[in-house]
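EI: anyone free to look at a 211-residue chain?
SC: sure, send it
EI:
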Amino acid sequence: MKRIACLLVFVIRLVVTIDQLNSVQGLSAENYTPSTDLQYLSDNNYWYTWKVRANDSIGYGEWSEERSINISALLMISLPVGSVNFGSLGYLEANDSSDNSPSPFVIENNGTVFVNVSVNSSAIWSQAQSNSSYYQFKVDNVSGEAGAFSWLSSITSWFNSPINSYVVAIDSLNYSDDKDSAEIDVRLEVPPNEGPGAKSSTIIFKAELAE
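SC: here you go
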């Protein structure tokens, strides 16, 4: 009896709900990983449908039953450097963290999607209870991770810290491991008539899905 070798090659047809069609052919493995990340998320009411059919080098079989895939966003950020300590400042003295003295905040995107990061802070000075040049911030690159966020649409020049309100500081922070971090520098200047004593401010960083 003569044996005939038969190779089954699978074709996967992937359809997203905005009528984008993608077919992958010539697969012989039991699993398949797309070469690029799937960008259409169930968070935005998108989903993918997929089906497969086999080819035995003679012809194609019937398409399988159509199935669906939902891709959900994972929003997760962390602060590898979560506090900034200015030590002592003299009357009317100013200092900032752009020279790494003190070290700036470092924020990292640990999720699976691009995120916008908003900043909200409480007042640090008794003589400057609202937004002012006495308490400012800006965003900068982490060394070796340039391009981790959209520079032109992020706040990269000194900006008055928003007191009890939010402002988007970082636009489209990447989630790729080699480029997923940003620095947030802080600038303080002691205002006139500010009394002595320990001063502190609470800063909240909020991540939202970048659209």
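EI: The chain has two domains: 9-69, 77-209.
SC: 👍
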